[in-house]
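[09:14] KT: can someone run the structure on this one? pasting the chain below
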Amino acid sequence: MAADGAPLSEEEVRDRVHLRHQNLADVRSLSLPGSYHKKITDLGDSLKNFICLKSLDLSRNALTTLEIKMFGRVKGTLCDAKMNTVELPGKPIQADHSSYRDAKNTC
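[09:31] RB: done, structure tokens below
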């Protein structure tokens, strides 16, 4: 796991889920729940190559920011994926964009 506050890397994601498969486009679901000792605070660009994700569990983490555009449609890929589920139980969502309600349709 990255040092406290450091962005999560793709390699750390692979290690956490014991993923040795090279083609990340085959991955449809990731479960990255936090634990008492290990919590994700920043995803950085660690998920950028998981282009076909449909479900992502980030429960029990300590995320400080979350890029909504990361979960939008990825055009021009083999799967043209759109995220269906992002689990963030217990996390209040706060947008710093004045028209965040309209932004959900622009991803």
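[09:33] KT: thanks! The chain is about 10% helix and 10% strand.
[09:34] RB: yep, looked fine to me
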